[in-house]
Write a structure and sequence with these properties.
The complex is a heterodimer of chains A (450) and B (268). By secondary structure, chain A is of the alpha+beta class. Chain A has helices spanning 2-16, 38-41, 43-51, 95-103, 118-125, 169-173, 249-253, 270-281, 415-437; strands at 28-33, 55-59, 69-70, 73-74, 78-82, 107-111, 129-131, 136-139, 155-157, 159-160, 177-179, 184-186, 192-197, 203-206, 225-231, 237-241, 256-257, 264-265, 287-297, 306-308, 312-323, 326-329, 336-341, 343-349, 351-352, 362-369, 375-383, 391-400. Chain A has three domains: 18-281, Class I glutamine amidotransferase (GATase) domain (Rossmann fold), CATH 3.40.50; 287-400, Distorted Sandwich (Coagulation Factor XIII, Chain A, domain 1), CATH 2.70.50; 412-442. In chain A, strand 17 (256-257) and strand 18 form a beta hairpin. The longest helix of chain A has 23 residues, at 415-437. Chain A starts with a helix and ends in a 13-residue tail after the last helix. The mean pLDDT of chain A is 91. With 268 residues, chain B is α+β, with helices and mostly antiparallel strands. Chain B contains four helices and ten strands. Chain B has a five-stranded antiparallel β-sheet, with no helix packed on it. In chain B, strands 3-10-9-5-6 form a five-stranded mixed β-sheet. Chain B starts with 11 loop residues before the first strand and ends with a helix. The chains are: A alpha+beta (450), B alpha+beta (268). The interface between A and B is large, with 73 and 76 residues. Chain A: Its main location: endoplasmic reticulum. Chain A: Keywords: Endoplasmic reticulum, Membrane, Signal, Transferase, Transmembrane, Transmembrane helix.
């Protein structure tokens, strides 16, 4: 009996104190490595992920037991790919499977290096990211760290995004990030955001000492991208980092000082940068959702499916942001409302209403006058900003024309007709009264005919 | 914490810098020798068809001998948007180098965005700790502005659209309505005038009330029917109107019959 009670209490305790995953999409992570020993290189990074309650599974891409999917569903929520050298990916984790993984909503953190194989280069091309050829590195003779070995490839990254949806202010303004790896070029699709890039004097080339640059490099200067982020249309996130060493224990702990500069930091910004990057990639940061939307005529509360042209309506939408492990009110100020019938007829910026700290979503409101075109309209809030999840919330309403009795009632051109009719009525009544009560005067001679 | 002050001592030294600009008709527009390390102070103007050439010698500072650095770029940096366009320089064994920018075969990036570009020479190589960035001068690219096709989509707030409502139907001017109102009312002048002339009155009202009771009631019911019609015009619907009308018309009929027979009696 006591044993049963104990088991019951244990089960209850486990159930009550079950930990909620920090990420909004789950905590199962698949880590792909070139070889088993690589795990020790990134021990601090992996430990910090496990402290954030992620379940990490370490596999090699050549392992035939690893499978991204299980019975048609994703078996993992996120993938960390630190296996740039491997050429022969097994089918279940090859670029095509990884692409399906992203299409089903999975997030990927891809680490590359100068030994990047063609397999992963092809994968990156699907996202409009062009990595340079194998054995090339990012070289910057002006911005390398003092602990560089002479090849000037260990660089202090200069350009960092100021998008606070992806990186926190501390990281943006903090110590620079150490990087040693391969460069990539970023395409022009709006889904991509540049996160970290090199200075104006950098370029991407092979590092053989006794040759000059004689061909135009793939990228030069501030176009040399070191870290880029892509958010797909289904809100899955893929981050491309040209240096796996960026996540290594050695770089996390290394002091950082640029050559020919007196400014030095005892610890590089790598650890905090990696933390912010994984927070964003694994959907812990910059995640938005719409909690509700309403529309109704002014002075009413009922949400109709049929409105009339030129009606004045109030549209409200509530948007919530996931930050610091809980849903809170979103702070954006440029959320726009559109009324669309094939083309937008109205586009208006919604005003955010102030919220109290306990409220989980911010309400946005606008007063709209519906256009004088009738038809089936879509009320849409299409909010796409770099770093935040995409929001496309639509409700369909019909707008009808005026009924016969909703036109202006009295028209100025009809005033003569109104007065004419009134005049007739008054004349009739007056004449009737006179007919009853008229007494003929003696002035008029009654003509009597004989 | 390393706080030693580092002297910017370049490992490279540039000498014999000469620039020349030739037009498409092979007319030499500019030929200057620039004393390194100062820059060329006047802006160098390039239009379509021009050819810009620059020669220089790069030597190792220590050995004073020619050196072939890994990176030798002539970079054009746009002052407008920071866009960088590099030109690769091939340095010969003795350190002599020649670089050419022919506007006829310049990259499209340059040809589609005119403006001022900062011209810098960047020299660097492995194991040398002090690379060189030398600001040669400013290029003024003067090409016709081309519309560079559809610009890439960037996510951001879109311009607001305010629906322009169709203007109300235009009605004739109000004074026209008022004047016709007046015209409609003019016959009253004639009516009142004629009545006054023939001496119209309602003196029979002053009689004993019983003899004119029915007439008054009849006139009252006519008035009531007219008021009902006015209400129908403003807010009633046909069903309510007909309801009232049935009642009122019965009253009018009865009182009317009586009133008219009274009048006939009285007049005979």
């Amino acid at each position: 009996m006591r044993c049963l009670l104990f088991i019951f209490a244990f089960v209850l305790a486990v159930g009550v104190f079950r930990v909620e995953p920090r990420s909004t999409t789950g905590n199962r992570v698949l880590v792909l490595l070139d070889k088993e020993d690589d795990k020790a290189l990134y021990s601090k990074f992996f430990n910090s992920l496990e402290e954030r309650e992620y379940q990490l599974t370490y596999k090699l891409p050549t392992d035939s037991t690893v499978d991204l999917f299980s019975y048609g569903e994703r078996a993992y929520d996120h993938v960390i790919n630190f296996a740039p050298k491997t050429k022969n990916y097994k089918d279940k984790v090859n670029p095509l499977s990884l692409l399906n993984f992203v299409n089903k909503g999975g997030n990927i953190l891809l680490g590359a290096s100068s030994e990047l194989s063609e397999t992963m280069r092809d994968f990156a091309r699907e996202f409009d990211i062009d990595f340079d050829d194998i054995d090339t590195s990012v070289i910057d003779h002006f911005n390398y760290d003092i602990s560089d070995d002479g090849k000037h490839t260990l660089i202090n990254a200069k350009g960092i995004t100021n998008n606070e949806a992806i990186l926190t202010k501390n990281v943006i303004e903090g110590p620079p990030v150490l990087f040693r790896g391969i460069a990539h070029k970023v395409g022009t699709i709006p889904l991509l955001t540049k996160v970290l890039w090199a200075g104006e004097t950098a370029y991407s080339y092979e590092t053989k000492a006794d040759q000059q640059v004689d061909q135009e490099p793939l990228v030069v200067g501030n176009k040399v991208m070191l870290v880029s982020a892509l958010q797909a249309r289904n809100n899955a996130r893929v981050t491309f980092v040209g240096s796996t060493e960026l996540f290594s224990d050695r770089f996390f702990d290394s002091p950082i000082q640029r050559t020919n500069s007196a400014e030095s930091f005892p610890k590089s910004g790598n650890e905090d940068f990696a933390k912010d990057l994984t927070k964003w990639t694994f959907q812990e940061k910059g995640v938005l959702k719409v909690t509700s939307r309403h529309h109704h005529k002014e002075n009413e509360t009922e949400e109709l499916e049929l409105y009339r042209i030129k009606d004045n309506i109030i549209y409200t939408i509530e948007i919530s942001e996931y930050a610091n492990d809980h849903w809170q009110a979103f702070n954006g100020t440029d959320v726009q409302f559109e009324a669309i019938m094939l083309d937008p007829y109205i586009r208006k910026t919604l005003t955010p209403l102030p919220t109290s700290p306990e409220q989980q979503a911010r309400k946005y409101k606008a007063h709209i006058q519906l256009p004088d075109v009738y038809g089936v309209f879509t009320f849409k809030v299409n909010y796409k900003r770099s770093g935040y999840s995409y929001i496309e919330d639509s409700s369909v309403v019909a707008i009808r024309p005026f009924r016969h009795n909703e036109y202006p009632r009295y028209i100025s051109a009809a005033y003569p007709y109104y007065t004419g009719a009134a005049s007739m009525i008054v004349g009739f009544l007056l004449f009737s009264a006179i007919w009853f009560f008229n007494k003929e005067s003696s002035k008029i001679v009654k003509k009597k005919t004989s | 914490l390393l706080t030693s002050v580092l002297v910017q001592a370049d490992d490279f030294v540039i000498s014999d810098v000469k620039i020349a600009v030739t037009t498409s008709e092979s007319v030499r527009k500019l030929y200057e020798s620039i004393p390194y390390p100062s820059s060329f102070d006047k802006p160098i103007q390039l239009t379509s068809g021009d050819d810009f050439k620059m020669i220089f010698v790069v030597n190792d500072k220590q050995t004073q001998k020619g050196v072939q650095p890994h990176q030798a770029f002539l970079t054009l940096t746009s002052e407008k948007n920071g866009n960088q366009i590099p030109i690769i320089i091939r340095v010969r064994e003795n350190g002599k180098s020649k670089v050419e920018l022919d506007m006829k075969s310049a990259p499209d990036e340059l040809l589609s965005s005119p403006g001022n570009y900062s011209l810098d020479l960047i020299i660097g190589t492995f194991s040398y700790n002090d690379p060189l960035k030398y600001h040669v001068g400013t290029l003024e690219i003067d090409v016709p502005i081309q519309s560079s096709g559809p610009s890439p989509v960037v996510y951001g707030p879109k311009p607001e659209i305010h629906h322009i409502f169709r203007p109300d139907e235009k009605l004739p001017p109000i004074w026209l309505s008022y004047s016709f109102m007046a015209i409609v009312l003019i016959p009253w002048v004639f009516l009142i005038g004629a009545w006054a002339y023939i001496g119209v009155n309602v003196s029979l009202l002053a009689r004993a009330p019983e003899s004119s009771l029915m007439s008054i009631l009849f006139l009252g019911s006519l008035l009531a029917i007219e008021i009902l019609f006015y209400n129908y015009w403003t807010h009633l619907n046909i069903f309510q109107t007909l309801t009232w009308l049935t009642g009122l018309s019965i009253v009018a009929f009865i009182t009317g019959q009586k009133a008219l027979s009274d009048v006939q009696k009285w007049r005979s």
